[in-house]
Amino acid sequence: MKEHDIQKQIVSLLRRHDDIIIVYTDVMSGAKFCRSTVMKFINYHKAMGYTKGMCDLILFRHGIAYFIELKHAKGKLSPEQIGFKNKIVGYGYNHLVWRSIDDCLKWLKA
Predict the structure, then answer these.
(1) Most exposed among 62, 79, 98, 101, judged by the fewest C-beta atoms under 10 Å?
(2) E strands of 29-79, at which residues?
């Protein structure tokens, strides 16, 4: 299953919970335009604060922030994603990698 399909399932599930705020950060993956338009799109989002390696979702629940990276079963974090994870964890935040809706369900039950 593709990461975006996993993300759609997870977001659909999380939206049923009133105690969770979801922030979607994966703005770059939707860029499927001609090359010049893609570069304008990327430059605009960089100017607006997008950082390469940023996680796919940020969740807030009960006063705690969770930075979620979504990967398919064999997906690996890129060097930029590892750097982002290290910063987040170094600041004392939670960084999780979810590979399926089951990972989200386990988190919800914890």
Answers:
(1) 62
(2) 57-61, 64-70
Any idea what DSSP says for residue 30? Answer: G
Model's pTM, two decimal places?
0.82
User: Reduced to 3 states, what is the DSSP secondary structure of residue 63?
Assistant: coil
Q: What is the pLDDT of residue 27?
A: 55
Q: What is the pLDDT of residues 46-66, one digit of tens each?
A: 787 777 888 999 999 999 999
Contact of 10 with 56, CB cutoff 8 Å: no
DSSP state of 79: H
- The residues, any chain, with a CB within 8 Å of residue 20's CB and separated by 6 or more, are 14, 59, 60, 61
DSSP state of 46: H
Q: Which amino acid is at 101?
A: I
Counts for the chain of helices (H) and strands (E), in that order: 4, 4
Q: Tell me yes or no: is domain 3-109 CATH 3.40.50.720.
A: no
